[in-house]
Amino acid sequence: MVDTLTFPVQQTAQSRLSEVDFANLGFGKYYSDHMFVVQYADKQWQNPRIVPYGDLSLSPATSALHYGQALFEGLKAYKNEAGEVLVFRPEANARRLNASAERLAMPALPEEMFMAGLQQLLALDKDWIPAAPGHSLYIRPFMFATDAYTGVRPSETYLFIIFTCPVGVYYNKPVRVKVETHFTRAPKGGMGYSKAAGNYASALYPTALAQKDGYDQLLWTDGVSHEYFEESGTMNVMFVINGKLVTPATSDSILKGVTRDSVLKLAQQMGIAVEERPVSVREVIEAAKNGTLTEAFGVGTAATIAPIAVIGHEGVDYTLPPMETRTVAPRIHQALDDIKTGKAADSFGWVVKM
Ligand SMILES: *Cc1c(COP(=O)(O)O)cnc(C)c1O
User: What is the domain extent for residue 24?
Assistant: First the structure.
């Protein structure tokens, strides 16, 4: 462990900031000047440092590339009107990183190291945080196994890295989603609750098949009966049925989204009834048919709230009420944005000034 949580910095010789077109940021097109790197070896995290963002040199036998011992996190930083750096719930990501690490037989990273590394990185690359409305700095912490060893066992060495990228407004075009009842994103007893890299790999093929049929994303169902909803694409999923905000209760096959938790808490504060419980496909399709399903949306850090326009189930497309009629998701989205950017009081203590 390090005694002092100020890490050595190797500053870039030439900042790339002037190359960035802040009017056309896209999502994940530009990478900030520096990254925070820590190595794990001899049963401890060591050599934490900040270095210029750049390529890594790895052995072809790097075990993460073969056996998938790799995980990641995602969170965002904003600038408030005074130009201060605000990070949304970073401790929650530090904790979840370690929950994922445990499931993948990877070592826990001290939360202080995560927080201090992030703080120092953001201080150094502060000018990369866009100030325009709706823009933010996306933060990508990740960890992977680095043993150059082809036998199957938990790696004895790892790298933990945080890099960041300025991102623009995520245009939330309402999506067409298909209820997936054949493939499973995450089985019971699997690693679906962890942000394991492999969870994403297993979702790509079924998603591509649905996209051939004209859908954008999948509505994942449980791996046992395929009768209960779990997530939407790479986001948690919520429905508004009879005016109540209904979402699947978390389990080992559902990722505990920070956005999910924040949306539920805000909804409760606004006096909206919230139900966390098993949500069956049958219930939602019935509600779509009889008009009591007024909204459906995904929730996650990248888009915050991604409205669902159409749900496809067994060859029938159910079109949900138009965006103009929706009140719950837009209200919560606005309230959440206002807290993240320091425009509204942060009564939950979510925002960390860095
Ligand atoms: C990251 C992620 C989410 C959303 O989590 P947030 O903390 O809100 O960004 C939901 N589902 C899956 C599978 C994820 O990987």
Answer: 2-169
Could you read off the pLDDT of 159-194 as tens digits, one per residue?
999 999 999 987 778 999 999 999 999 999 999 999
Domain boundary among 169, 193, 226: 169
Global pTM? 0.96
With a Cβ cut-off of 6 Å, ligand 1 is lined by: 74, 195, 231, 234-236, 255, 257-260, 300-301
How many C-beta neighbours within 10 Å does residue 269 have? Answer: 12
Residue 54 CA, ligand 1 centroid: distance in Å: 26
Q: Could you identify the atom of ligand 1 that is nearest to the CA of residue 75?
A: 9
Same domain, 163 and 69: yes
Domain identity same for 99 and 220: no
Residues 263-318: pLDDT tens digits? 999 999 999 999 999 999 999 999 999 999 999 999 999 999 999 999 999 999 99
Look at the chain and report how many structural domains it folds into.
Answer: 2
Residue 78 lies inside a defined structural domain of this protein: yes
